[in-house]
Amino acid sequence: MSVVIRALGASIPPQRITNEDLAARVDTTDDWIRSHTGIGARHFAPDGILTSDMAAEAAKTAMAKAKIGPHDLDLIVVATATPDYFGFPATACIVQDKIGAYGCAAYDIVAGCTGFIYALHAASSMLETSHGRHALVIGAEALSRIVDWNDRGTCVLFGDGAAAAVISRIDEAGRGCLSFLLGADGGGARDLYLVQAERDRTFERAQPVVPVISMNGRKVYDFAVKSITVMIERLMHKTVYRLEDFAWIVPHQANARIVQAAAKRFNIPQDKIYLNIEEYANTSAASIPLALAEMDQKGLLKPGDLVMLVGFGAGLTYGAAVVRW
Ligand code: UT7
């Protein structure tokens, strides 16, 4: 028995914002953003489009490709830092309603930019241990709604979008999700968190809370390089695979320099690492599935390919997955 990624779908909002567009309203330059991050553009969801809208669109595309209907689903897991409603209900439940998958289980996972890997682990484990056949694993974000436009160190980094994977339990062995590594370092929680702009609220004087991202960029950068390095080392130790066995490494797209630093440490050729940060910026939990959906669309993922997913983010969390395509 294996749990395989059977099909992928993406939803990219049409509003494309270049670095030059940002430089017209923020004290920054195209040169600074490109040289420090590798980002050239990002896409923003227009007013009225929620995280669940992008997630549902991506889900419908993935289900059509997988040739399954909403009633075939046993579970929907949405990884997001920007749910439609902070707290509850889960965005996964709203997605369930929007795609008409009534009755299946649905919940969200909060693991920052590592969210898709955490969600893939949770959903594939559920399929392995239950009688379930199919699950939707979605990474979806509307980060443009929570960036602090007064903080040029963070507001240039993020973009919106969603991608969904249909995962299915099959009888064949040795394919799909082969191995996972998940971890967290809660001591770094304050290095990347949502700060509530309005703090002096009381029950009598309720004010809408507008949370914004607060990040200690340098600390998160160091954590990211270290955690990618440690995860690759641990995967090589824990599994039978060597780095040369991997057709692709698909990292969380936070900063091209983070990925390049890790690649240099292991002499990984750049053409084995998939990067699309230049077009989409950092889409947090959506970044890894968006990269996979784009690779799939381009025909880059061949049956039998060994693929490593590796992510890190708020928590601070980290995670990796080994997937046989
Ligand atoms: O996905 C979640 C995980 N997040 C990450 O992985 C992000 C990790 N961190 C990073 O990628 C990097 O730390 C950043 C891209 C956020 C920042 O790069 P950096 O090389 O660490 O820059 P810095 O914050 O040390 O700032 C260097 C300089 C400062 O100016 P001074 O003090 O040297 O004069 C900043 O004020 O760059 C300045 N700066 C900017 N200048 C133009 C910061 N942001 C900007 C900007 N445009 N947008």
Chain-wise SSE layout:
Blueprint: E1 2-11, E2 15-18, H1 19-23, H2 30-37, E3 41-44, H3 51-66, E4 73-79, H4 91-99, E5 105-109, H5 115-129, E6 134-142, H6 152-155, E7 160-170, E8 176-184, E9 192-196, E10 211-215, H7 217-238, E11 248-251, H8 256-266, H9 277-280, H10 287-297, E12 306-313, E13 317-324
Parallel strand pairs: 4-5, 4-6, 11-12
Antiparallel strand pairs: 1-7, 2-3, 6-7, 8-13, 9-10, 12-13
Bound molecules: oxa(dethia)-CoA.
The dominant shape is globular
CATH class: Alpha Beta
> What would you report as the Rg, rounded to the nearest angstrom?
19 Å
The quaternary organization reads as single chain
What is the CATH topology assignment? Peroxisomal Thiolase, Chain A, domain 1
Side by side, the strands of the main sheet go 1-7-6-4-5
> What is the mean predicted local confidence, pLDDT?
95
Task: Tell me briefly what this model is.
The protein contains ten helices and 13 strands. It is of the alpha/beta class and 325 residues long.
Describe the structure.
- Helices cover 32% and strands 27% of the residues.
- With 325 residues, it is an alpha/beta fold.
- It has a single domain (1-325), classed as Thiolase/Chalcone synthase (Peroxisomal Thiolase, Chain A, domain 1).
- The strands form four sheets. It has a five-stranded mixed beta sheet, with helices on both faces. A four-stranded mixed beta sheet has the order 8-13-12-11, with helices on both faces. A two-stranded antiparallel ribbon has the order 2-3.
- The two termini are 15 Å apart.
- The mean pLDDT is 95.
- Residues 28, 32-33, 36-37, 113, 152-153, 156, 217-218, 220-221, 224, 254-255, 258, 282, 284, 313 line the site of oxa(dethia)-CoA.
- The site of oxa(dethia)-CoA has 20 residues, from helix 2, helix 6 and helix 7.
